[in-house]
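[Automated response] Your request has been received and processed.

Submitted sequence:
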Amino acid sequence: MIVATRPLAYAALCIAMVGALSACGKPENDGAAVNALKTPLPPYPAWSVAMIGKPLASVVHGKADCMGVFDDVLARHAGAKPGSEVGGWAWDKTAKKGVQHILIVDLDDHIIGAAEGGLRRPDVPPNMPGVTSEFVGWRGVTEATTGTALAVGLAANGGQCALAKAVKLDGAAY
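Generated structure:
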């Protein structure tokens, strides 16, 4: 019986740690504190342009072993090309490195944005056992300014993994 409960305890610990890192020392965003910029949204990463608007299942096949969190909306852009800048962190457990490409999807699993990984996040390794690099951060863009978004990491093996937490683009994460 003890053996059967250890995996559950470990899973609960992992979920608690991911939850604790979801804000990584930053206050939860209430939607009012996000940078409101009157500049156009930066372009999508070149590798992702042909994927925008497509169903996730038509672009990515297979699963990957990774972990991470979709932290928050970092900025909102207005003007000629409105949209949201978003960010978080992701770790590819198999490749033992930060995830380099992240897709932003809506609740219907349509790709609505993309992000580049490899940004420095010194807060993650001390709090996440197994993460051995600070370069696990990611930042990306979506033309969406409302609705709920999820992040999907594209691992080195070509598979995908869902990152923790959904984010309301027009308000607080949940």
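Summary generated for your ticket: The beta strands are 35-37, 66-77, 83-92, 97-98, 101-105, 111-119, 137-142, 148-154, 160-162, 167-168. The helical segments are 2-21, 56-59.
If you did not submit this request, please reply to this message.
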